[in-house]
Amino acid sequence: MEAQADQTPPTDLGAEWIEQSGQPGRALVVFIDDLDRCTDEVVIQVCEALKLYLDVPGLIFVLACDLSVLSRDVAESARGGIGEGRAYLEKIIQVTFKVPRPEDAKIRDLIDYYGKRSGTADLIDDLMKEILVEDADRNPRKIKRIINSFVLEYRLNRAWQKWPLDNWLLVTSILLQHVYTPFYDFLVSDTSSDDPIGDFLDYVTIRRLASTPPPSHHPWWAVTHRAFREHGIPLPDWSPGIGERMIRDVEELESVFPKDFPVLARNNAFVTLLRSIGNKETRRALRAQLINRPMVTEAAHDSTI
Fold first, then answer.
1. What is the pTM of this model?
2. CB of 116 within 8 A of CB of 264?
3. Helices (H) and strands (E) in the chain — how many of each?
4. Which one, out of 70, 104, 193, 231, has a CA that is 20 to 30 A from the CA of 31?
């Protein structure tokens, strides 16, 4: 007669394991990371497997994940709604703890540490740190990837050492690529002008005074006329009620740009970053470099720190 497989319930196995150890408070902790990055099918399979062991004494599961993403993943199997997905997870997850966002000082210390380890400390100024702290979501993994990308690009592409390009412009380009991706795509798009950065900075200048335009001799009008002429918008003249008309004209100007422009225009750190790139010649050279020799860092994952 064939030997039968051991059908001992998990709860009995757990109790036996604790009893044999002679340590009543003994516990086995299983960490499961990045479950929210798995496919819906895998998420359900893992959750169903966990349910079999919830009553096992001394066995603790710790899930490191985004609970809202997990709820969407299981929603379909839990009859299709986010609410049902959360209800399903509540039967499995008994205690939740939301990891607080890192404090500014700790993230800055981390940036300094990464900078020293990678030899890029001199290039990461206060503006760069502000962008990495705020616009990189305070994510240590993302910050490390950005710095690693600079190191890799610097080593593989010496064209950045040729005037008017330099290491600072390379760091700026890496930030645009990783933190402000929609603008980076606009910058290298073949449908943009030869100076997309200048177009954006003109737009920022125009919108900041659009509701209360200055007198007709103000330099603001030269910028406004140039931008409107390039995009086929009728040129406005100063007259009573010009503010309301200018707001409508700016909205028409926005329609020819990516939808992210209004949000980016309110981001002082981002605007300062673009202004620091330099004149039109430098901006054109930067764009030409990114188009003719695309950066290799997009798919790079090897750690250099």
1. 0.73
2. no
3. 15, 2
4. 104
